[in-house]
Amino acid sequence: MADYPTRQWDQMADIEIAPGIVIDDGDVEERFVRASGPGGQNVNKVESAVQLRFDLVRTAALDAEAKGRFARLAGQRLGQDGTVLIIAQKFRSQDRNRADAFARLAEMIAAARVAPRRRIKTRPTLASKKRRIEAKVRRSGVKRMRSTRGDD
Q1: Domain 9-113, classified CATH 3.30.1490.20, yes or no
Q2: Residue 2's CB: how many other CB atoms inside 10 A?
Q3: pTM to 2 decimals?
Q4: pLDDT tens digits, residue range 100-132?
Q5: Nearest partner of 32 among 108, 91, 94, judged by Cα
């Protein structure tokens, strides 16, 4: 038996990813597969990698706007059925890979819940316009001086 603490995610009714972020246990499905990462011969016989599927369509933890942001963050990890696949195989231990997968899910959910700030249009100042024009004049003068115009 392992002497390190284990987390029993699948025994909870709701999973608290982070403070204020609680997802329903039915929105998450985890599967254990053989990893291709570190572990030597252990890799060939122990299913230590975790495939975590998060059902983005069904979850009530995110509103519609946050789901859209989450879908953009997920990128290619988002399947056509609306589930996000997170594969964790960094560690030799199944528990550490499971914790890593949930931590990555929590990061994505936290990032999706934050609405981007709206950009406010600004105009360049008169001084910056003058500096730009002066730099262009200076640069054209240098190029003019480099050109060969006379008969040698």
Answers
A1: no
A2: 8
A3: 0.65
A4: 998 888 888 888 888 889 999 999 999 999 999
A5: 94
